[in-house]
Design goal:
The structure is a single chain. The chain is mainly beta and about 150 residues long. The chain has one domain: Glucose Permease (Domain IIA) (Distorted Sandwich), CATH 2.70.70.10. Helices cover about 10% and strands about 35% of the residues. The chain contains 1 helix and 13 strands; from the N terminus they run αβββββββββββββ. The strands form 4 sheets. The protein has a 6-stranded antiparallel sheet with strand order 5-13-9-8-7-11, with no helix packed on it. Strand 1 and strand 2 form a beta hairpin. The structure holds 2-acetamido-2-deoxy-beta-D-glucopyranose. 2-acetamido-2-deoxy-beta-D-glucopyranose binds next to strand 7 and strand 8.
Length: about 150
């Protein structure tokens, strides 16, 4: 019984969905840790609320890639604040049974399917809005759950 449970645990871990490379220049999906604007992990403080995504490092202007085979479910606006217009775009995606959003990315296209590793858009100029921040793509699950286990 015990060995069966171990086997099932191993199979479950192997079967778990993992994000492939999201951003050119960051093949390991390394994460934003801490900078003058805050921290990148899920649940970090954001004034009166909590950070609802996970921040993956991505330089301004870098190419953003499909982390696995995905369907594009349209474009998003991130902010209502006009002073953040320069980075106010994102993409809604699904694949591997997950629905998720990428913020601060200008999509190349907003519908159809894209294979893992193909370009889906461009990282927007985050330094122009948040000088000194670790520029990043914000990954947020559509149900607001924690994306960290998928990285
Ligand atoms: C994202 O796409 C999914 C699947 O089509 C949809 O259910 C969801 O409402 C969309 N979310 C946003 C914010 O557009």
């Amino acid at each position: 019984m015990r060995s069966l449970l171990v086997l099932l645990a191993v199979l479950w871990v192997c079967d778990a969905v993992k994000f492939g490379q999201l951003c050119s220049g960051n093949p390991s999906n390394s994460r934003r840790t801490s900078d003058r604007w805050g921290q990148g992990q899920y649940g970090a403080g954001r004034g009166t609320r909590l950070h609802q995504g996970l921040d993956i490092k991505c330089s301004d202007g870098a190419a953003v890639y499909a982390p696995f085979d995905v369907t594009l479910n349209g474009k998003l606006t991130v902010y209502t604040d006009p002073t953040k217009a320069a980075i106010n775009e994102g993409i809604n995606l699904s694949g591997q049974g997950l629905c998720f959003k990428l913020f601060y990315v200008r999509p190349d296209r907003t519908s159809g399917t894209v294979r893992k590793g193909q370009r889906i858009g461009t990282m927007l100029p985050m330094q122009s809005v948040y000088p000194g921040i670790t520029s990043h793509v914000h990954v947020q699950m559509c149900d607001k759950s924690d994306p960290t286990p998928y990285f």
